[in-house]
Specification:
Pfam families: SASP_gamma. By secondary structure, the protein is mostly helical. The protein has 3 helices and no strands. It has one domain (about 15-60). It has helices at about 15-30, 35-40, 45-60.
Length: about 60
């Protein structure tokens, strides 16, 4: 059984794959960039618009 799971944890996680993902993540953070998951799910223009709208609402309510 141990020979069949060489390179994997007891739960079946591929150690080499995790190391590769960690290395890629470290490279991105060193360059001041976010991972692709964050970037692909975030629309910066929409966030700016929502922030601007929130500021306008805050000044109207004060």
């Amino acid at each position: 059984m141990a020979q069949n799971n060489r390179g994997k944890t007891s739960t079946g996680t591929n150690i080499q794959n995790v190391r590769q993902q960690n290395a890629q993540s470290a490279q991105g953070s060193q360059a001041g960039q976010f991972g692709t998951e964050f970037a692909s799910e975030t629309n910066a223009q929409e966030v700016r618009r929502q922030n601007q709208q929130a500021e306008q609402n805050k000044s109207q309510n004060s």
